[in-house]
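During the no-cost extension, the postdoctoral fellow (Dr. R.K.) reprocessed legacy sequence entries with the updated structure-token encoder. One reprocessed record is reproduced below for audit purposes.
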Amino acid sequence: MKRIRGASGLGDSIYIRPIAEHFLRQGDEVEVMSAWPEVFLGTGATVLPFRKDNIDVLAHYVQGKYLTNTTQWQDICRSAGVGNLALKTNWEVRNPALVARVRQQAAGRPVVLVHGGRVPMARTDGFGAELLPERRGFDAVLGQLSGTFRVCVGKAAQVYPVECDLDLNGVTSVSDLMDLGVTCDGVVGQCSLAIPLAEIFDRPLLTVWASRGLEPGRHPYIRAIMPGKVLSKPTSSHVMDSTDDQTSAMLVNLGRNQKKTAASKAIENSGPSIHGIGVCNSVHT
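Re-encoded structure tokens follow.
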């Protein structure tokens, strides 16, 4: 028996799914401590209410938080003792009607999930508020993606609205979110659950990063939340929220002409192109 937990958020449970599947493939019975049982549908794992004690496997990034030569996913794998495990999973769509409705409304445009304008880490005490990107940074990126079909997802209250073509905020289940993640053409988000959602399905990801969180004098925990640490896939990139409109346009357009990763090519071959958002680059901090 392997009893597993990570951190308590939805994104944290998405990270745990491949680890649970790893132990299941080895023949272990698996219990996962999670507040998000739908993440583990189809795995065969038993999901119990989240708790911190009485576990066998800790799949958490905190022990490697300040290491500069690893990614967050590598830290989770090291903590769980699973070696160099791939961040991927198979997911069977459970709400095909929702996926079909989104595609129909997109009318051939690439479907881009948008998750932003949220209180970072869903904290109520204000800690980490500087991880919220400035609205103008989000607006600049989404303005350059006006030719795509932008679908707003998530449940938490928004600090500011983000531009979208279809607002599904607060109306989808966790299973619906996973359905949209595996069938979309790309993801745009702040540092949030958008990252594991895109990366576990090898979807191109463009993260709008808050420059305030990287300023000198910030809490060490906050300053350690850097793009080079948190982003784990070659299909993931970021722009800073301080990027002006002209630079944002250059970054988005640059992606159209860059060499695509194997994952990006596979995605483009299987559906509409997202215009290279997963290969846009900016200065990594």
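Strands lie at 2-5, 30-33, 46-48, 57-58, 111-115, 149-152, 166-167, 186-189, 205-209, 236-240. The chain has a mean pLDDT of 85. The remaining legacy entries will be reprocessed before the final report is submitted.
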